[in-house]
């Protein structure tokens, strides 16, 4: 800029000389040239002053000095190197999360109180031991997800010892979920899925950090499957509607000999975020599932293994949730039936009969402040036909969970079950929640055994508290 300005001025000065020469003498011309040179010199000095002032202003203005620029360059190189390393080591797109929830439980009829954490879900004889007071809590969960650049996602969830989808299948597996979710090229919003996934039924989640209370509702415990193992797809129809379906084994990682049929399961979801949060879902299942009642044992849950007999099961469920301000509500209504799976056989022919059930559950929460929330849950399970019974092993009288007919009454009528739970949860920080609950279970018949004297009662009381840490 400086040299260009000076040159322009010189050119302008030289261009006027012929005109000056015509009007003035040589002496006057020389004097004029000297005056012009002096003016140019003054201009150069002023320009130097202005340049110095500009440099001073730039130095005073916010910005990085030379040392800061070197540090920025060094960090940029390190960041690029870290990205390359993450990609080469498979860390890119990897998410690891998990939780633990040490729990204290008092249950009246079992005459038991103490901590439950990482206890085995098997009895001393190796049979599964699942109950509403010994369910999916007191666990350590590790969740691993990896999303590749192609959009394909790998999902693995491990739950050692405690009740997860895999553990429900054989009493030993720690794998709760092992699945692949792969986008299908050319079909926007469609993903192929395969592997073992937890059941899609139920408004409550199995994991404690996702569940408002400690225990689960009656429908969750006794009327929904644990897992689907097979192949299917998920389709996002638009921003509000999603459809999932699978052809799968239910509660089984491998079909036994002589069994070739699978089940069809589906879930259709509607989400609306316009009014904070609203969702509705229709979930269904039809197909052959293990029928422990047909195994011919008095109670295969505690005595014998499943012998490979399957029977047709049909379930249908409508669930939903709504959150607005400090209030939240969620719930479900369910119906279901399984062929030849009722607790009581025909009293004349001795043939097995169908089991059937229906029920409803709802949970209401209110936040007193940002940290403290009160929770109420109400459940009802109608299970009286043919002595009662659902599926997945609940095809026999169970005096711990209050299922089946009165031991000294009419074997044709099973007990209907209900429960109310009052709870509080306190968010201590972003990762830690403290829970406390009181639960009262009621049956229409005396079907709860009191282990202190062996008598049968119509009700049971439970108190629980837990600390849930998630990351």
TrEMBL record:
Keywords for this protein: Coiled coil, Signal
Q: Which residues are the signal sequence here?
A: 1-23
- Coiled-coil ranges per the record? 33-67
Question: What InterPro entries has UniProt attached to this entry?
Answer: DUF3138
Q: Which Pfam families match?
A: DUF3138
* Identification of the protein by name: DUF3138 family protein
This protein's species is Undibacterium parvum
């Amino acid at each position: 800029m400086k040299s260009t300005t000076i040159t322009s001025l010189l050119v302008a000065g030289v261009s006027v000389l012929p005109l000056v020469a015509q009007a003035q003498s040589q002496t006057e011309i020389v004097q004029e040239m000297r005056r012009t040179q002096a003016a140019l010199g003054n201009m150069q000095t002023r320009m130097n002053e202005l340049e110095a002032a500009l440099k001073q202003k730039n130095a005073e203005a916010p910005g990085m000095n030379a040392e800061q620029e070197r540090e920025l360059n060094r960090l940029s190189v390190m960041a690029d190197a870290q990205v390359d390393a993450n990609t080469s080591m498979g860390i890119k797109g990897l998410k690891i999360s998990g939780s633990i929830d040490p729990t204290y439980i008092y249950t009246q009829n079992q005459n038991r109180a103490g901590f439950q954490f990482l206890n085995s879900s098997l009895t001393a004889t190796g049979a599964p031991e699942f109950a509403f007071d010994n369910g999916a809590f007191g666990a350590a969960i590790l969740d691993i997800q990896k999303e590749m650049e192609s959009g394909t996602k790998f999902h693995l969830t491990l739950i050692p010892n405690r009740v997860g989808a895999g553990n429900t299948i054989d009493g030993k597996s720690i794998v709760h979920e092992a699945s692949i979710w792969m986008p299908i090229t050319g079909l926007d919003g469609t993903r192929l899925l395969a592997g073992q996934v937890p059941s899609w039924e139920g408004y409550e989640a199995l994991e404690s950090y996702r569940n408002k209370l400690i225990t689960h509702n009656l429908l969750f415990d006794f009327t929904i499957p644990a897992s689907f193992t097979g192949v299917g797809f998920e389709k996002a129809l638009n921003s509000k509607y999603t459809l999932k379906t699978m052809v799968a084994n239910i509660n089984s990682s491998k079909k036994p000999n002589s069994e070739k049929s699978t089940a069809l399961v589906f879930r259709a979801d509607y989400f609306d975020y316009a009014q904070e949060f609203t969702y509705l879902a229709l979930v269904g299942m039809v197909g052959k599932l293990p029928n422990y009642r047909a195994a011919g044992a008095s109670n295969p849950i505690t005595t014998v293994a499943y012998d490979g007999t399957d029977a047709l099961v049909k379930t249908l469920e409508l669930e939903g949730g709504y959150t607005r301000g400090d209030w939240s509500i969620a719930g479900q209504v369910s119906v279901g039936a399984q062929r030849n799976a009722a607790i009581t056989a025909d009293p004349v022919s001795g043939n097995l009969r169908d089991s059937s059930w229906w029920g409803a559950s709802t949970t209401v929460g209110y936040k007193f402040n940002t940290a403290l929330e009160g929770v109420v849950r109400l459940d009802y399970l109608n299970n009286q036909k043919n002595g009662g019974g659902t599926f997945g092993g609940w095809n026999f009288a169970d005096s711990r969970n209050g299922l089946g007919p009165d031991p000294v009454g009419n074997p044709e009528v099973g007990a209907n079950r209900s429960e109310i739970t009052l709870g509080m949860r306190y968010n201590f920080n972003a990762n830690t929640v403290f829970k406390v609950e009181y639960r009262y279970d009621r049956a229409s018949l005396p079907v709860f055994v009191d282990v202190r004297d062996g008598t049968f009662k119509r009700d049971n009381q439970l108190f629980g508290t837990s600390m849930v840490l998630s990351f």
